Amino acid sequence: ATLPDRPAIVHDRVATLAAATAVVRGNWGGAYTVPATGLYPHQWSWDSAFIAIGLRHLSPRRAQLELDSLLSSQWADGRLPQIVYDARRDDDYAPSAAFWGSADLPGSPPVPTTGLIQPPVHAWAVWLVHAHEPAESARRGFLERAYPRLVAWHRYLRERRAAQDGLAAVVHPWESGTDNSPLWDDALARVPGTPRAPIERPDLQHADASERPSNKEYGKYFWLAERYRDHGCSDADPDHPFVVNDPTTNALWARAELALADIAEALGRDGAAHRAEAARIVAAMEALWDADLEVYVALDRRTGELVRKATVGGLMALLLPADVLPPGRADALLRTAQGPRFLDVDGAAPQFMAPSYDATAPDLDPALYWRGPAWFNMMWLLLEGLRTHGLDARAEKYVDPMVEAAVREGFPEYVNPWTGDGHGTRSFSWTAALTVDLLS
Ligand code: 2M8
């Protein structure tokens, strides 16, 4: 099957690189890149990782700085915060630095941050930045600096976020990076929507309300954040109502552990313990495997129930080589990725990017945030996954349509996976940075 008809733009590589570079350059905040001016005016954890992956082609030095600045905001317990606040712009985003008051919490870094986390893609990003220009990285001691911090970050996930079965849990939808994913609906149903703090929505000045989480969801997000903060962000609240194993977080954790092995070996150390840890996480992820949907799903720790919905995050184990996965698993995931729920390669009108949520689900909304639209970071990860399993030619087919949509729509936050129409904010950093990577 062919991909859907696209406007006959044959993008000009030089002009596209220049446009994408202008976006990441324009969003540079001095030592890191904001995801988008306006909507996201601080440093976000996994955004910085994706941004660094693109920046390595433009300036390895700046890519290192992007990750160094995030790593230097690490908590004493090893956590890397979801957001590092820039005091110059504190009024522009809610919840603000004042809401978290991180300075008063034990073990917080000298800069204000949230107490939450985001998916652990960082070790892999550090490795990709290093491997692109190893001499430059070695000259600046990039890996030596990053390695102990990354080890501490993964230790936090294992010791503070993983229960006996060894799967990392998220305690807030924001931690998953896929905030309003249908995976969280049932768990959120038992979360009160009545925080003490007023619900502020500065985001609605920068994106249409129909493309953002609802006020009802925001009430629950604020309530959960207050609860976590009021327990000192200590991960020791036995009754926290939202504790979920997210497939994206766990798959990226395993992939990042393999990168930690590469980093350790590049530093002349033994990487075996990291490879064993990756294998352990993959084995633990068996609890998330849905054999009917042939995808990894979420597990609600409060009910012990699987959340049996297919999301693009459930395919992220494709980033792991076949010999790290259980026998037959890579083939099953490739079937799902290319089947009607995601890329629909044999369909009459296949998606040009994978939707964030099952294309066959009746409640998919192609314009609403993490409930259907396609995201450039997830599609970039999926293409890496296809390549990991030898489907380079298949992956290559998606590059031009993705790049075209990115340029035509002004580097949107996300797009309709059938029409390519842009949604959310524009001049979005990881869209631009990953465009640079796709073209490099
Ligand atoms: C979105 O999440 C933030 C909260 O972290 C928000 O909605 O305000 C998500 O798309 C998340 O994955 C992303 O890291 C963040 C910044 O781009 O925006």
Automatic annotation (TrEMBL):
<dbReference type="Pfam" id="PF22422">
    <property type="entry name" value="MGH1-like_GH"/>
</dbReference>
<dbReference type="InterPro" id="IPR008928">
    <property type="entry name" value="6-hairpin_glycosidase_sf"/>
</dbReference>
<dbReference type="InterPro" id="IPR054491">
    <property type="entry name" value="MGH1-like_GH"/>
</dbReference>
<dbReference type="GO" id="GO:0004573">
    <property type="term" value="F:Glc3Man9GlcNAc2 oligosaccharide glucosidase activity"/>
</dbReference>
<feature type="region of interest" description="Disordered">
    <location>
        <begin position="192"/>
        <end position="211"/>
    </location>
</feature>
<feature type="compositionally biased region" description="Basic and acidic residues">
    <location>
        <begin position="198"/>
        <end position="211"/>
    </location>
</feature>
<dbReference type="InterPro" id="IPR004888">
    <property type="entry name" value="Glycoside_hydrolase_63"/>
</dbReference>
<keyword id="KW-0378">Hydrolase</keyword>
<keyword id="KW-0326">Glycosidase</keyword>
<comment type="similarity">
    <text>Belongs to the glycosyl hydrolase 63 family.</text>
</comment>
<dbReference type="GO" id="GO:0009311">
    <property type="term" value="P:oligosaccharide metabolic process"/>
</dbReference>
<protein>
    <recommendedName>
        <fullName>Mannosylglycerate hydrolase MGH1-like glycoside hydrolase domain-containing protein</fullName>
    </recommendedName>
</protein>
<dbReference type="GO" id="GO:0006487">
    <property type="term" value="P:protein N-linked glycosylation"/>
</dbReference>
<feature type="domain" description="Mannosylglycerate hydrolase MGH1-like glycoside hydrolase">
    <location>
        <begin position="40"/>
        <end position="431"/>
    </location>
</feature>
<dbReference type="InterPro" id="IPR012341">
    <property type="entry name" value="6hp_glycosidase-like_sf"/>
</dbReference>
